[in-house]
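queue> pop job 88
queue> type: inverse folding (structure -> sequence)
queue> payload:
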C-alpha cells in the first residue's frame, strides 16, 4: 500500500527489529535509506531483502532524509544521536530505542540544541517480519507525533500516542521491560530448579492455570495491597527459596532482590485495606 504523501526515511540501523520497520516503511511506499559503513554482511543482506537503499555515509543519509528513525541497542542510542547531530540534519528524529526516560531527555536536549526535532518512541512486541502485533508508542509534540503516525499508515505496525511529553514513551518501555524481561529470567530459574527435582510437568500444569498477567491483576483486583500486606511472610519464604536454588548451583540473586523489595512493604503487615496508592508509596519510599 502506498501513501499519498511519501517521505524519505533514514534508518539507523536495519538489525532484526530495525530491518522489519524499514521493510514496513518501504512496503508503504516510502524511500528508506541506510548506511552500510561499519555494518555486517548479515545486515547488508537484510537491508537488500527489505528493499532498503544504501548510501555512502551518514552525512549522505542525513542530507537526503526527511525523517531519521533510530532503532539500535539502547546503550548505542546516545552515540547514534550525537553522530546525527554532527551531520547538520534538520529534520525529524524518532528515537525508538529502549532507552530510559533520563537518557532520552538528555539525548533529546542535545539534538534540540542542534535544531533537530525529536519524537520519543518505544517498540514493544515481536519483529514485524516474525509476527504481527508490534506496537510503536510515541510521545512528544502533538504535531510531530502525528507526522510519525502518518508515516506508518498502511503498515502492520500499530502506532499508539501515549499523550505524554518527551520521555513518556521511554518510561513506558522501562516499566514494561522491567516486568517482562525479569519475568522470563525468573521463569528460567524456576524451570531449572523444577527440572533438577523432576517436577517440570506439575509446574507447567500449575502455570497453565494462570490465565491473567500479574501486571494487570495487581491493579485491577487490588492485588498490590494484598501482596504488600503479606510481604512480611513472603520475604522469609523467598530467603529459603534463594538458599534452595543455590544448593542446586542456580543463582539465588533474583529471590534475594525480591526480598529486598518486599522489605519496603513490611510496614503494611496484614493490612488488607485495598489502598493501592499506599502500597505504591511504600514501594517508592515515600512513606
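queue> result:
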Amino acid at each position: 500500500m502506498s501513501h499519498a504523501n511519501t517521505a524519505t526515511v533514514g534508518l539507523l540501523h536495519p538489525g532484526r527489529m530495525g530491518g522489519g520497520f524499514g521493510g514496513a516503511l518501504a512496503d508503504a511506499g516510502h524511500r528508506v535509506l541506510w548506511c552500510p559503513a561499519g555494518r555486517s554482511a548479515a545486515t547488508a543482506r537484510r537491508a537488500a531483502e527489505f528493499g532498503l537503499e544504501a548510501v555512502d555515509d551518514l552525512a549522505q543519509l542525513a542530507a537526503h532524509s526527511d525523517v531519521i528513525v533510530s532503532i539500535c541497542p539502547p546503550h548505542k542510542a546516545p552515540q547514534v544521536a550525537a553522530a546525527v547531530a554532527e551531520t547538520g540534519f534538520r529534520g525529524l528524529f524518532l528515537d525508538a530505542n529502549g532507552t530510559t526516560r533520563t537518557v532520552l531527555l538528555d539525548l533529546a536536549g542535545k539534538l534540540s540544541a542542534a535544531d533537530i526535532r525529536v519524537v520519543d518512541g518505544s517498540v514493544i512486541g515481536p519483529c514485524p517480519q516474525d509476527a504481527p502485533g508490534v506496537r510503536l508508542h510515541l510521545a512528544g509534540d502533538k504535531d510531530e507525533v502525528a507526522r510519525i503516525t502518518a508515516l506508518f499508515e498502511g503498515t502492520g505496525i500499530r502506532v499508539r500516542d501515549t499523550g505524554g511529553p518527551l520521555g513518556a514513551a521511554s518510561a513506558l518501555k522501562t516499566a514494561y521491560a522491567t516486568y517482562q524481561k525479569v519475568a522470563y529470567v525468573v521463569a528460567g530459574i524456576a524451570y531449572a530448579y523444577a527440572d533438577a527435582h523432576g517436577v517440570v510437568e506439575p509446574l507447567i500444569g500449575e502455570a497453565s492455570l494462570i490465565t491473567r498477567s500479574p501486571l494487570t491483576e495487581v491493579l485491577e483486583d487490588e492485588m498490590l495491597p494484598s501482596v504488600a500486606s503479606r510481604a512480611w511472610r513472603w520475604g522469609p519464604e523467598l530467603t529459603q527459596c534463594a538458599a534452595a536454588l543455590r544448593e542446586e548451583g542456580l543463582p539465588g540473586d533474583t529471590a534475594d532482590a525480591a526480598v529486598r523489595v518486599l522489605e519496603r512493604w513490611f510496614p503494611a503487615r496484614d493490612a488488607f485495606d485495598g489502598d493501592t496508592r499506599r502500597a505504591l508509596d511504600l514501594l517508592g519510599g515515600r512513606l
